[in-house]
Specification:
By secondary structure, the protein is of the alpha/beta class. The chain has helices at 15-27, 42-54, 68-73, 86-96, 106-129, 150-169, 185-196, and strands spanning 3-9, 32-35, 60-63, 80-84, 133-139, 172-177, 180-183. A hairpin with a 2-residue loop joins strand 6 (172-177) and strand 7 (180-183). Helix 4 (86-96) crosses helix 6 and helix 5 (106-129) packs parallel to helix 6 (150-169). The longest helix has 24 residues, at 106-129. The radius of gyration is 17 Å and the shape is globular.
């Protein structure tokens, strides 16, 4: 039976280490780690090395920066998978798409945003079809300053919409603050129902 868990948090909130605890609890040493980061500079290269060293060596790592849904289709049914992270995947897709430039019309931007969000939907769909126990890590980026440039605002909005789509279909949703995870899906549903009567 498939399971979808979303782990949200800000930078250095402890979301990745909590997500690693979750998948280790689900799969022990039989975990597939899908890494979405691309090496763009020395600092990113060092971050990736630290991440690799912190994970159990027995975990299988798949490095896929854009076509994550396709990579998931190739996994064995029922696999335990940690996707870290959705926000980096979205960034890769935005930056790879030269059409998401500053001078694009709102209509064109909207079409490209939907293409990118379709990949998020496909990840969820593949996870369900393959009965994966899929844990997705994503950043909460909408609580800070509004970006001063259009592409930054497009990206911030994309992340917010993607997080909402995953959360709506997730079995469990956690938010981490200062290393402390809090389960919010059930609480969120109860709160909504109070106001919808």
């Amino acid at each position: 039976m498939s399971k979808l868990i979303l782990v949200l948090g800000g930078a250095r909130s402890g979301k990745s280490s909590f997500a690693e605890d979750v998948v280790e609890n689900l799969g022990g040493q039989d975990v597939i780690y899908v890494a979405t980061s691309e090496v763009r500079d020395e600092e990113m290269k060092e971050r990736i090395i630290r991440h690799r060293q912190s994970r159990p060596q027995e975990w299988r790592t798949i490095e896929e920066s854009k076509l994550v849904s396709q990579a998931l289709t190739e996994l064995e049914e029922g696999s335990v998978v940690l996707l870290d992270c959705l926000t980096v995947l979205l960034s890769n897709l935005v930056l790879a798409d030269s059409d998401l430039a500053e001078d694009e019309t709102d209509f064109t931007l909207q079409a490209k945003e939907e293409e990118i969000l379709a990949e998020v939907e496909q990840i969820i769909e593949v996870g369900r079809k393959k009965n994966l126990e899929l844990v997705i890590v994503s950043n909460e980026v909408g609580q800070g300053v509004v970006p001063s440039y259009k592409l930054g605002r497009v990206y911030r909005d994309l992340v917010g919409w993607a997080n909402q789509r995953v959360a709506a279909q997730a079995d469990e949703v956690y938010i981490t603050y200062a290393g402390l995870p809090v389960e919010i899906k059930e609480l969120g549903i109860e709160t909504r129902e109070q106001f919808r009567g």
